[in-house]
Specification:
Blueprint (H helix, E strand, L loop, with lengths): L1 H33 L7 H34 L5 H7 L2 H4 L2 H12 L4 H8 L10 H25 L3 H9 L4 H29 L3 H6 L8 H12 L2 H24 L21 H28 L16 H11 L1 H10 L6 H11 L10 H10 L13 H22 L9
Helix pairs in contact: 1-12, 2-7, 2-9, 2-13, 5-13, 7-9, 9-12, 11-12, 16-17, 17-18
Length: 422
């Protein structure tokens, strides 16, 4: 018996050592290249705190919302039930950015929800920030929690429900004596699994998060590499993230494993409990979960691939309010550092924005009309970021004068317009 246990543990220990060598080896290589681990900043500690609480809240909401859905799927039989259970794995099969685009189509500024609220005269909702990250995590992980809880409900032998019915158990009695023991055994594992998934989220935080108040550790590591090239700080952040994951794994190892309810005779499940209230509650849970999962996916499918004759999409731009918020959150030094590393366009707005950012803006009198028009809009982006901004009145006055004199300049500059040379 001891020899059999040793043979069983050998491959597992070898695999664990290989994974540890891969993780710690890459981390050590980065730290050696940087000359040691770097000191963490205040923003990095805020990213650690945001990562912890958003992962805990996302996992808690996913498990909480999955309970009524899994209960309804366990005790109801209807056409398409097997297909719906299979579709619960669709969010995990989709690329993260595709699922995020589907959520933007539904909950974004011009999405279905905001359009409906605007038609009703209600204020809209903003998807970007911590609430957007949590919403996307719930979209990805609630189906996983539902599948895990559904397996728990299906693990209760049908004989237990028949015995409860013969004893005259009411729904709350069944919940107390049959469902609650199962939930106490399954929910901790589901919560910790989803917590680990949300702890290492990157694409969702990169798309819907960002800024000082919605940056995860993964995103902070990316920023340390991509924008600051601070390898020591990136290694320290990676070490902190590894510590968080190991702590979560240690807690999950102490969580109770599902003990089961014993073996049954594999008979068909008893009929669902009677009552219009319970039926309506189950229908509402299944319908809400189906809409929440399928509407974003259908929104992506409805857009489909571009037609052969469609014009190429134009450049994506933030609106004025979002640009101002991003500039204020980042600060002038981070904006300059990011601008040095990122490619830019040849537009007038890009030229004027760079000139303002690096202090190379010439006098207003020598700027062409295109740059003056762009400057009228770009100045609003840097309010509160750059001190010596041209006044809006001066820019607009100069722009109006330039537009007034432009026809005369063309006439004076081209002496033979419309005539042949004599």
């Amino acid at each position: 018996m001891a020899r059999r246990v040793q043979l069983t543990l050998g491959p597992a220990l070898l695999a664990a050592l290989l994974v540890a060598a891969l993780v710690l080896g890459t981390l050590g290589a980065v730290a050696i290249r940087a000359g040691g681990f770097g000191a963490l900043r205040g923003a990095d500690m805020q990213a650690l705190w945001f990562t912890l609480w958003q992962a805990a809240l996302s996992a808690g909401l996913s498990c909480l919302l999955a309970v009524p859905v899994a209960r309804a799927l366990a005790r109801r039989r209807f056409a398409g039930r097997a297909l719906l259970i299979s579709l619960l794995g669709a969010p995990f099969l989709l690329p993260s950015i595709v699922a995020v685009m589907g959520l933007l189509s539904v909950f974004g500024r011009n999405g279905i929800v905001n359009g409906t609220m605007a038609a009703l005269g209600l204020p809209g909702i903003r998807l970007y920030g911590a609430h957007g990250v949590i919403l996307a995590h719930v979209f990805f992980n609630m189906p996983l929690a539902t599948r895990m809880l559904l397996h728990g409900w299906q693990g209760i032998p049908a004989e237990r429900f028949r015995l409860a019915a013969s004893l005259g158990f009411r729904p709350r009695d069944i919940h107390r004596h049959l469902e609650m023991p199962m939930l106490r055994a399954v929910l901790p594992g589901a919560f910790l699994a989803i917590f680990l998934v949300c702890l290492t989220s990157f694409a969702v935080a990169l798309t819907l998060g960002g800024g000082p108040r919605a940056t995860t550790v993964e995103l902070a590591i990316y920023q340390a590499f991509r924008f600051d090239f601070d390898l020591g700080r990136a290694a320290s952040l990676a070490l902190g993230q590894g510590g968080l994951c190991l702590a979560a794994l240690a807690i999950s190892a102490r969580a109770p494993l599902p003990s089961g309810f014993g073996a049954g005779l594999d008979r068909a499940a008893p009929p669902a409990p009677a009552g219009a209230g319970l039926l309506l509650r189950d229908i509402a849970a299944i319908a809400a979960a189906t809409a929440f999962l399928l509407v974003p996916i259908m929104a992506v499918l409805a857009r489909g691939p571009p037609a052969p004759n469609d014009p190429p999409p134009g450049p994506w731009r933030l609106d004025r309010a979002e640009r101002t918020r991003v500039a204020r959150d980042a600060g002038i030094e981070k904006l300059r550092s990011a601008r040095d590393r990122l490619p830019g366009s040849e537009s007038a707005a890009q030229r004027v924005a760079d000139a303002l950012l690096f202090g190379t803006l010439p006098e207003l009198s020598v700027l062409p009309i295109a740059d003056l028009a762009a400057l009228d809009d770009v100045c609003s982006w840097y309010v509160g970021v750059i001190e010596s901004l041209p006044s809006a009145d001066a820019v607009r006055s100069r722009l109006a004068m330039a537009r007034l004199l432009e026809p005369m300049r063309r006439l004076v500059g081209n002496h033979f317009v419309g005539r042949t040379t004599e």
